[in-house]
Amino acid sequence: MPSSLTLDRWLSMARDDVVAIDAADILHEAQANMWSFSPHDDAPQDISTAGLVHFITQIMAARRSS
Question: Where do the structural domains in the chain lie, given as residue ranges?
């Protein structure tokens, strides 16, 4: 798997993020668990389709384990 500095940085931030569970307020729960990633202008050259698939797979695994 080719490494991407951008995706590696995003993964380290997202992997440590707390999972919010709020049965009384589903909107709060959804907003608390929402992420947004914005690449810098030079980052798209660093991001491949395979790298993005790997990133998403790693995020899903981290969220399932927490």
Answer: 1-12+48-66
pLDDT tens profile 5-30: 889 988 888 888 888 999 999 999 99
At which residue do the structure tokens 């589903």 appear?
26
Q: pLDDT per residue over 28-53, tens digit each?
A: 999 998 888 787 777 777 888 899 89
Distance of CA 59 to the CA centre of its chain: 5
How far is residue 61's CA from residue 58's CA, in Å, rounded to a whole number?
5
Residue 36's contacts (CB-CB under 8 Å, 6 or more residues apart) are none
> Which pTM was predicted?
0.69
